[in-house]
Amino acid sequence: MKRIFYSIILLVSFSLISGCGDDKAVDTTKVSADTPVKEKIRIGVEGAYPPFSQVTSDGKLVGFDIDIAHTLCANMNADCELVTQDWDGIIPALLAKKYDAIVASMPMTDEHKKKVAFTHRYYQSPARFIHKKGANDTLSKEDLAGKNIGVQRGTVSDKFITGEFGEGVIIKRYGTQEEAYLDLKAGRIEMFFADAFVLLEFLGKEEGKDYEFIGKSYTDQKYFGEGIGIAVRQEDTVLRDQFNTAIANIRKNGAYEMVREKYFEFDIYGK
């Protein structure tokens, strides 16, 4: 039933066949090192964006972004250190040289490009609304007027809701997805708007069983950019090119698919 549920959701939302990946380990130590990198690379990650990045109860960083970072580092023959950082400060910390790159599901928007340089994409994703099952909601601006809509603060989802619905709705901003889910379940917000893949993770859990997607997917390039890329400082063109080579390498040698299959049973890279 879970697989059927997922398939219906993403066939409607993004023409994808959905499901949950298994927990098989990804062996990044066997990825060929085609792009030698001598110095240590520090990588900023969020740790609060499952299934892409989260911290387990025993303090371990896990998720698609985390595994991709390790896989790229293995391909680059690089000594990498992952540094957790709240989303609100993730670009400022990069510019302050707290780390050298960001692997944190960052959309390649025009606004972000004013501050950082991006690699080629390593995945892409739509955004969607969720609400309580059986709620008599529509997504017209008239029907949304006065409703409490949750978003993660400072994300492209925040900017989309502000730009497209901001004058009529009450926008409630949260530091993490989990904070928003708590308010959704408590009835303090009627809807939550975020990355469809991340919301799918919530809907597949016991805590999300009473909620569902509503309406269409949103991929407007004005807000959501050209996909998800790795961010580096604008002057770090050599590091950007090394990441680009590594992304191409792991796409070719199967390492990317090993990571993807661990979390998703559908393509997230796109054509």
Keywords for this structure?
5-stranded mixed beta sheet, 271 residues, 2 domains, D-Maltodextrin-Binding Protein, domain 2, disordered N terminus
Gist?
The protein has 271 residues and is an alpha/beta fold. The protein has helices at residues 2-14, 64-75, 90-95, 110-113, 141-144, 156-165, 177-186, 196-203, 221-224, 237-253, 255-263, and strands at 41-45, 48-49, 53-55, 61-62, 80-84, 101-107, 117-123, 127-132, 148-152, 170-174, 191-195, 211-218, 228-232.
Task: Tell me the CATH topology of the largest domain.
Answer: D-Maltodextrin-Binding Protein, domain 2
What percentage of residues falls in helices of 4 or more residues? 25-40%
Average residue-wise pLDDT: 87
Report strand %. 15-25%
SSE-based structural type: alpha/beta
Element order: H for helix, E for strand = HEEEEHEHEHEEHEHEHEHEHEHH
Q: What is the name of the CATH architecture of the largest domain?
A: 3-Layer(aba) Sandwich
Q: Strand count, sense and closure of the main sheet? A: 5 strands, mixed
Number of helices: 11
Radius of gyration: 18 Å
- What distance lies between the first and last C-alpha atoms, to the nearest angstrom? 29 Å
Q: What is the CATH superfamily of the largest domain?
A: Periplasmic binding protein-like II
Strand line-up of the largest beta sheet: 5-1-6-13-7
